Recover the amino acids of this structure.
């Protein structure tokens, strides 16, 4: 990964950090001092960055925070270059009806990236576009960087979720774990929703 970790700030910026080795002495076997250098600053949003997820081995960053004038949004950033300084490009914005609670990336075996988004009442899955899809606003066939792959309506609120094997989703609710397995059907350039199964953990 081109950097070691990222931090979000109250001023809406994301900083990328990398461990650097600074030699204190030229003597043989002398220990080196390790320090952290900021190699990139990204102005992600107007408000504070309170939620962030890193995917694609550091090439994608999703950021979120409190509601703004544009509503509830998640920003998806792509790493353009990273030599001495890292540069990110705003790739896509996801608009939500309610505040996101958790966001997590999944890197599929075929190189495709998927982003899971948990809100107070729904669990959404967004996918990097590898095919042409029908735009929901215009109804026209076209290419978009990301598209809404699936969503599941929740009967109770959950505070977190996790990706499982083969693209499954694990969601704890009360005394149960909901496991959603992908049921992908390519029909008229649309994707079908996830098929849910409920397992008790009592």
């Amino acid at each position: 990964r081109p950097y070691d970790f990222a931090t979000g700030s109250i001023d809406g910026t994301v900083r990328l950090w990398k461990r650097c080795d600074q030699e204190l002495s030229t003597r043989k076997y002398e220990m080196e001092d390790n320090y952290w250098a900021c190699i990139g600053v990204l102005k992600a949003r107007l408000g504070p960055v309170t939620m962030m997820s890193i995917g694609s081995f550091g090439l994608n960053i999703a950021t979120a925070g409190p509601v703004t004038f544009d509503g509830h949004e998640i920003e998806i950033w792509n790493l353009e270059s990273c030599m001495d300084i890292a540069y990110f490009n705003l790739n896509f914005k996801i608009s939500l009806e309610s505040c996101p609670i958790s966001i997590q990336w999944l890197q599929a075996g075929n190189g495709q990236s998927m982003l899971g988004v948990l809100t107070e009442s729904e669990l959404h899955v967004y996918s990097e576009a590898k095919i042409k899809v029908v735009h929901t606003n215009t109804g026209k066939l076209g290419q978009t960087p990301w598209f809404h792959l699936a969503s599941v309506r929740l009967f109770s609120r959950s505070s977190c979720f996790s990706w499982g094997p083969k693209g499954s989703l694990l969601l704890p609710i009360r005394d149960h774990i909901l496991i959603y397995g992908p049921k992908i059907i390519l029909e008229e350039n649309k994707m079908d929703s996830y098929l849910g199964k409920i397992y008790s953990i009592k």
